[in-house]
Design a protein that fits this description.
single chain, Nucleotidyltransferase, domain 5, six-stranded mixed β-sheet, about 15% strand
Length: about 475
Amino acid sequence: MKVSVEADGGSRGNPGPAGYGAVVRDESGAVLAERLGALGVTTNNVAEYSGLIAGLRAARELGADEVDVRMDSKLVIEQMAGRWQVKHPGLRPLAEEARGLVAEFALVRFSWIPREQNKHADRLANAAMDGKTATSTTSDISPSASGPLAAPSSAAARSGSASSAVAPSGAPSSAAAPSGAPSSTAAPSGAAPSGAPSSTAAPSGATSSGAAPSAAARSGATSSAVSAARGAAAASEVSELSDISDLSGTGAEKRSWSPPSTGSPLRMVVLRHGETPYTAEKRYSGRGDIPLSDVGRAQAARAAARVRELAPDLAAVVSSPLKRCLETAAALGDLPIHIEDDLIECDFGEWEGLTYGEVRSRYGPEQDRWLASTAVAPPGGESFQQVAMRVRRAVRALQERYEGKQIVVVSHVTPIKLLLRDALAASDSFLFRLYLDPAGLSVVDSWPDGGVAVRSVNETAHLS
C-alpha cells in the first residue's frame, strides 16, 4: 500500500513549549490517520523530527510499504536524504530512529513542500501545543466547515526551517541492474543503473549497521531517544540551522547559476575501475576479487594522467578494498591508498560470476523480485537499500575528513551511480539513462554549507 505522510513540529520560543503533528493519506488524499503530541520544552528541530517519527509509525501500523514523506522543514528533509550532516548531538538519536523506521518500508521518498501545503500537520502540531491530545474530538483541532484554519502564528517561530525542493533520497530505481551486471534487458556494465532497482527512492538512510531499532525502542508515541534528544536540544540554543544556506525563513529556495562560494570545496574525482575479464564477459561482478585485464591496466594509466589534471593538489586516494579498484588506484603514483570498505561493490551472492543470461534462466523469479524492490537481495547477497545506506555513510565521512581538499575516489558502478544521483538530486530515471565506462571519470565539488556542483559525469576522452 502506498501512502503519504505530512509531518510538522514547532516550538513557541525555540526552545519553548513544543508539539508535533502528522497526517497519513491514501493515494486519493483521504486521511487515514492523524498523530499529535506535546513535547514539553524543546526546539523546533526536535519537534519536526518527532512529527516525522510519529508519521512513519502510523504508516507502519497501517501496513504501508511505500511512503511519500512531505515536510516544510528543509533541515529534516536534507538530513534524511543524506545530503546534510546531523551535527547537533540532540538530533542524532532522532535521526537514527527515523532511519530505522525508514528501513522497514520497501520504499520511502522525501520531498520538501511549502509551508502553506503543510497546514494540516501544522494545525495538529499547534493543537498539541495548545494542550489537545490524540483523543480530542475532531472539531477541537480541525478546521471549521467554512474553510481551513489560517496558518498559526507560531509558524513564525519556525522561520529557521528554510525550504528547498528535495529529490527522493534514495537508492536506485526500478529496473536498475547491478554494477556492471544489468538485468536481462539491460546493457552490460556501466549501462545498467548503479545498483538495483526500486520503484524509486530507497530510504534516505538507516542506522549505520543497517538494522532497524528494536521493537521496544520503537514503542510508544515518544521513545527514550526522543526524550533524550528533547532534553539535549533544549539545553542548548545551538541550532542545526547552521547547515542551511538560506536562513531567511521566507520559504524561498536559494538558487544560483553559479556554485556556492562559502569556503573551499571538497573536490572528489570519482573514478570507476578499469576493465576486468568479467566486464568483457558480461558477468555479475560484485565481491569477487577479480583483477584488471591488460586493457584495464592501460585504462587505469590513462585515467591517472587525467586525474592529475583535474586535481593537481591531490591530497588522498580513497579506494574500494577490491583488487580491481586497488590496481586502478595504484596507477596514480606514490600517494598512499586509503581503503573505504563502504565503497565496495554490491554483493550479488549466488549470482556472482554468472552471466546475465545464466541468472535469468536459473533465478528468474528471484531476479524479478530483486528488480521490483531495493529491499530484496539476490540469494545470499546484499539488498540495494543496504548499498545506498553505506554509500551515503562513506560520502559523509569523506566530506568531514577531507573538507576543502582534492581527492580521488576509486569505486564501482553501483556506488558511483548512487553518489552521482544524490549529488544531482536527480529522479530515479537518471539511473537508467547514465552509462559509466570502465575508467570513466566524474567530478563532484561539495561545500561546507551544503552546496554541491557536479562538474562532469563519465569523462572518457582520456581513454581515446
